[in-house]
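Q: Here's a chain of 283 amino acids. Please give me its 3D structure as tokens.
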Amino acid sequence: MKWSYSIVAVIILGLFSLFILFLFEEATVANEQDYYNLKEITEASMNEAVDIAYYEDTGNIKIIQEKFIENFIRRFAQNQKLDNYSVEFYDIMEEPAKVTVRVSNDTDSYNIYGTRSQVKVVNEISGILDDKKNSGNKCTMTRVVYSSPYATKSGNGSYNGQLKLKDWNGYHPISITYIGSWRDNVSDIPATAAIIRTYLANKHNYFDTTDSGYDGIPESDIKVNALATISNLSVSLNGNVALQKFDYNCENLLHANVNGQSNVQICLLGTMYQVVYKKDNCN
């Protein structure tokens, strides 16, 4: 009888050890799988969420938050069983591009000597997306500035004026190069509307506007040939002030809001410059 109890005790101890082994083996395997999936999915989702238009304009990496979350959930759903997982997003920054993601799930539960047990596996990762070609040299950065220095009621003429550029995150402008006019760079209404929206949204970040109170165009009234064709342009930089001279011609005028007055017909002198900025105290 004594040996019978001993054998039963050994069997129970063996089963207990076996369940413990299964539990921690599953937790270890799940933890390793979750970590590598989390790492690869986060990296791929950040790359897919890069704002390409912003990068082309500024040379800086920026992600779109909504696009990152959408890409992450889609990729994660393809690799994991979502019914057991909790996905949490922390500290998503669009620029500089940085994200923190936490993924947690519960292992299968095991009945160990009358007690059901399971382990919560939690993995958290932070990712920063940077541009390798700029990571070693941050002394200079380049931006494209969409400038509308003046909105005139005349369809053609000459312009001679200033564009006051702003310092940018400790960088100051050191050179400016004319890329082309808005008219040169668009061929249809949607592209024209996109450039105008970019200008209206970002002009306060890049320069002090001197556009005679111009504050917008009704999208329904946008005409490609109401953007001026620019010729004989010269530009030079004196400190933070760009000195501009050019001739312009608009085939048509468009309706805009000027000094709070709507339906004013204007010719829009849209120019585009590539500006190189240098960081203070950087050689």
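Q: Can you summarize the key feature?
A: The chain has a mean pLDDT of 76.
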